[in-house]
Write a structure and sequence with these properties.
The protein has 258 residues and is α/β, with parallel strands linked by helices. The protein has 9 helices and 5 strands; from the N terminus they run ααααβαβαβαββαα.
Length: 258
Amino acid sequence: MAILAPLIALVYSVPRLSRWLAQPYYLLSALLSAAFLLVRKLPPLCNGLPTQREDGNPCDFDWREVEILMFLSAIVMMKNRRSMFLMTCKPPLYMGPENIKYFNDKTIDEELERDKRVTWIVEFFANWSNDCQSFAPIYADLSLKYNCTGLNFGKVDVGRYADVSTRYKVSTSPLTKQLPTLILFQGGKEVMRRPQIDKKGRAVSWTFSEENVIREFNLNELYQRAKKLSKAGDNIPEEQPVAPSPTSVSDAESKKDK
């Protein structure tokens, strides 16, 4: 398994490696790294180098160089967290039942603008994110409970469609706290999102639990309103989007809640 995982990751990243090698900056960096190892480990090139090893061997790394190399390796792994996805033990992707529509970079705007009476809750996710994978079964369960004609659930992979993350201001940095992001759309416009973003552009800590999503997005009230819309038919004029009150409690409970 230790040999198979790196081989799978290598095959998976062959197209990216070809583009990487085509750029002189990365190729020069690789050559310089190889030159450092040759000079540091290959006699007689390393015989005249200074060393702080107790045995006085100039052709081996001393403790300072080992610490620097370990630190640089950790930084490289963090920066390439998405590339390391297949090489680490990640929880499996959720493959259970759900009532979710998946968007790409072209269909998301079209679907949100198609019928402005429909309320959308869209999850912006990335497959390499552990938090997104942990939230996937919760979001799927919510879609099965609350999806109806006037209330739809959607997902879009911002790890794959970078322009979508830019348009909707969802960071996909390896160290980001914005994945997953839930956005409520009414009338084709964003009404609220979780986690919220502060003035410095940082995500405010928020727990993605089923109870928090139901309370903050007021799903019970949205569900009741959407059911009334579907029963009334298509002759109802479009309503102006109204943001749900996270602290308010619906007076009438749905049959599912009872």
